[in-house]
Amino acid sequence: MSYQIAIDGPAGAGKSTIARKVAREKNFIYVDTGAMYRAMAYHLLEEGADPENDSEIAEKCEGADITISFENGEQVVLLNGKNVNHVLRTEAVGNMASAVVSRNPQVRQRLTVLQKELAEKNNVVMDGRDIGTCVLPEADVKVYLTASARIRAKRRFDELAAKGEAGDMDQIEADIIKRDEQDMNRKIAPLRQAEDAVLIDSSRMTIEEVVHTILNLCR
């Protein structure tokens, strides 16, 4: 039997950073489901798919073969055999993933099957929006990780600054609030805390404190 850790939460809560560190500490495989959705979003952008046309989205997603491999312990997302890690965190891809890809039933069904297969064969730490509620409802440990919108915006602002990129704090916060609204109110698998998930608000916590808290839950 595999051991499954599910981490859900809104955009910018630090799920990926925390999940990677927990996976490294536990020697588990880290599955970034958001990256898989973003890879699909990137594919649809490249294909010029109309965001408002669900049937076109469903048709064009059939041309995307998305897999995960691991190189030197790091996750590599492959879209039709090509490493697309470098484009997955762009704003355009993120917005497409939230507004279009995550609410399309055909896309979700296809990616969910792959995610379940990974979790059945390996000990995993998986993060996303609906892991504890839909993808891994029987996960051994479930966490709902969040932080205030302002704190999440500040973290994103600092990330951009570290890369030498300019950012508007108020606009970033507005985008985050909009993403939250979309994710929590979508018809298919909306973002919500699973009944048996542990709520962790990281607004006043360090990364190490959050990781330590989750590792304690595993014990």
Structural summary, described in words:
There is one protein chain. It is built from nine helices and eight strands. The protein is an alpha/beta fold. The longest helix has 17 residues. It is globular and about 45 Å long. 39% of the residues are buried. The mean pLDDT is 91.
Name some characteristics of this structure.
alpha/beta, three-stranded antiparallel β-sheet, 9 helices
* Major beta-sheet overview: 5 strands, parallel
Taking strands numbered 1, 2, ... along the chain, how are they ordered across the largest sheet?
Answer: 2-6-1-7-8
Tally the helices: what do you get? 9
N-C termini distance = 17 Å
**What is Rg?**
17 Å
Portion of residues in beta strands equals 15-25%
Classify the helix fraction into a percent range.
Answer: 40-55%
* Shape descriptor: globular
Order of helices and strands: EHEHHEEEHHEHEHHEH
Counting helices, strands and paired strands, the structural category is alpha/beta
| Poorly predicted ranges | none
Averaged pLDDT: 91
Number of strand segments: 8
